[in-house]
Amino acid sequence: MRRIIWQATISTVGENAALFLAEKRLILFSDNAPKDIGDYCITHHDGELIQPVSVQQKITLFGITYSISAIGDVASQNLKELGHITLLFDGAEKAELPGTVHLIGPIPTTLSAQGNITIFEE
């Protein structure tokens, strides 16, 4: 049975957000992100984290489901307090930075300012 840990609705795709795809990264931030930061992020609203993010969970983004392979030490706290994490599509088993969530799966080819971002466990 699928249990949602966090779900948010995508608000905007910053005009420079796609630049980070070349580095296999996407930055998520709540709608409260300062404008200069928001230009590099996918912003979202309505997300409430009900438990810490873990490697037993998955993320669905733009219709693709990714397995979580590693989580930085402050990623859950940042997501809960700021709506902010960096997604890194590299399948690493050890977190590169404290606020990074590493994912197994393809790098998104299209960024859409609609839909949901969902973290869940089965």
UniProtKB/TrEMBL annotation:
UniProt modified residues of type Phosphohistidine: 44
Database matches in InterPro entries: PTS_IIA_glucitol/sorbitol-sp, PTS_IIA_glucitol/sorbitol_sf
One Gene Ontology term, aspect cellular component: cytoplasm
Any one GO molecular function term: kinase activity
Pfam (any one): PTSIIA_gutA
GO term, biological process aspect, one: phosphoenolpyruvate-dependent sugar phosphotransferase system
Domain of life: Bacteria
Protein's name according to its UniProt entry: PTS sorbitol transporter subunit IIA
